[in-house]
Design the sequence.
């Protein structure tokens, strides 16, 4: 780990200029992802998070699939801008796909009907924690990443290509790679409007 937690917290940003240069070994990358998924909390210890790590030609394939789908969805005038953005994602080293296993959510809804409406919400909260924890872990190791949401547009093709179970719902995609450009400036709302302390 090249940075401490607080450095990573402050420096974790959306990086769109990324390269295919690896920063850590694939084995360490896999261990990092597995540790995050294993230790990120979930309501009722439901462990609904499912993650797929795409590297090499599989990473490239994801963005090829996304590009072709977007080519069909957008007008010829709109597509070039989107294509340029998708090329920046494909230029990275890999992509993390985040899913939630809806079969577990449905099972918990049946077991605990009093909380039925809450389980989908708690599943999303757990997914958000996993996404953030992976993002921060990548930042701490020296990768730049961003979070993308082409979910409904690409989910069917993604499931077919990588034999993903039907019950896994795609929540987001995180392309990452060695940062080759700095992120833009970030504005912050006044912190005193966001955090209240009473002693």
Sequence:
């Amino acid at each position: 780990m090249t940075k401490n937690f607080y450095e990573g917290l402050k420096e974790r940003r959306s990086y769109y200029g990324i390269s295919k240069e690896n920063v850590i070994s694939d084995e360490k990358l896999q261990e990092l992802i597995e540790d995050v998924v294993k230790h990120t909390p979930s309501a009722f210890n439901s462990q609904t998070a499912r993650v797929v790590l795409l590297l090499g030609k599989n990473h490239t394939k994801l963005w090829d699939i996304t590009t072709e789908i977007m080519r069909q969805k957008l007008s010829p005038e709109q597509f070039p801008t989107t294509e340029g953005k998708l090329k920046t994602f494909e230029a990275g080293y890999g992509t993390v796909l985040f899913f939630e296993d809806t079969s577990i959510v449905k099972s918990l809804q049946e077991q605990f009907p009093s909380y039925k409406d809450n389980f989908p919400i708690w599943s999303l909260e757990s997914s958000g924690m996993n996404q953030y924890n992976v993002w921060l872990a990548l930042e701490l190791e020296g990768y730049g990443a961003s979070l993308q949401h082409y979910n409904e547009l690409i989910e069917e093709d993604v499931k077919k290509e990588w034999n993903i179970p039907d019950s896994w719902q795609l929540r987001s995609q995180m392309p990452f790679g060695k940062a080759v450009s700095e992120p833009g400036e970030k504005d912050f709302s006044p912190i005193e409007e966001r955090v209240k302390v009473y002693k």
Q: What stands out?
A: The CA atoms of residues 110 and 116 lie 7 Å apart. The two ends are 36 Å apart (CA to CA).
